[in-house]
């Protein structure tokens, strides 16, 4: 992919609200060139979605997020893809990743309670053919997501004390 496209993608990834006019100014290009490149990247499915990163801890939220390690037996002719597709079609599932190491898939889900997540794991996920085992980890606090730090440390304005 050419360097110009990568620069545009980096600028949009950093802040999706940047306008083509601003990006053109930042890159020293015409607005029409930037608009055409963004449209091309959208049509090629390189840019899939523009999203907002939220710090839900600043807003009352009853959502519980969990990461689930899943060991599976790959399906002949389809490998891990077929079971991954069955899993990512559940509405509770936010992300699914094929991993190297001790487990095969990492599944991120959201539920309204711990019991909601436990029910999903036991009734929907663990009961799928080819799922050998699961290990669930609940997210207690997010410090950083998608490169964004949620908690800014306050400056220590106290006067130093020296002996």
Automatic annotation (TrEMBL):
Specify the protein name. Lrp/AsnC family transcriptional regulator
PROSITE patterns found in the cross-reference section: HTH_ASNC_2 (PS50956)
Q: Which organism is it from?
A: Paenibacillus albiflavus
Pfam families for this protein: AsnC_trans_reg, HTH_AsnC-type
Annotated InterPro entries:
AsnC-type_HTH_dom (IPR000485), Dimeric_a/b-barrel (IPR011008), HTH-Siroheme_Decarb (IPR050684), Tscrpt_reg_AsnC-like (IPR019888), Tscrpt_reg_AsnC/Lrp_C (IPR019887), WH-like_DNA-bd_sf (IPR036388), WH_DNA-bd_sf (IPR036390)
Q: Spell out the Gene3D superfamilies in the cross-references.
A: 3.30.70.920, Winged helix-like DNA-binding domain superfamily/Winged helix DNA-binding domain
| Sample GO molecular function, one term | sequence-specific DNA binding
* Signal sequence annotation: none
The residues covered by the HTH asnC-type domain are 1-81
In terms of SUPFAM superfamilies, this protein maps to: Dimeric alpha+beta barrel, Winged helix' DNA-binding domain
Query: Which keywords label this protein?
Result: DNA-binding, Transcription, Transcription regulation
């Amino acid at each position: 992919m050419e360097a110009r496209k990568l620069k545009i993608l980096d600028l949009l990834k950093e802040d999706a609200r940047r306008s083509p006019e601003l990006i053109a100014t930042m890159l020293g290009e015409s607005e029409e060139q930037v608009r055409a490149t963004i449209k091309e990247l959208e049509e090629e499915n390189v840019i899939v979605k523009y999203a907002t990163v939220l710090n839900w801890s600043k807003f009352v939220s009853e959502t519980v997020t969990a990461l689930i390690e899943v060991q599976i037996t790959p399906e002949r002719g389809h490998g891990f893809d077929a079971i991954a597709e069955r899993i990512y079609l559940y509405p509770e599932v936010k992300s699914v990743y094929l991993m190297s190491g001790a487990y095969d898939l990492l599944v991120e889900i959201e539920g309204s309670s711990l019991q909601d997540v436990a029910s999903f794991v036991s009734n929907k996920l663990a009961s799928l053919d080819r799922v050998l085992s699961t290990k669930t980890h609940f997210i207690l606090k997010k410090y950083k997501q998608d490169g964004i730090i949620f908690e800014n440390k306050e400056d220590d304005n106290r006067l130093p004390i020296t002996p």
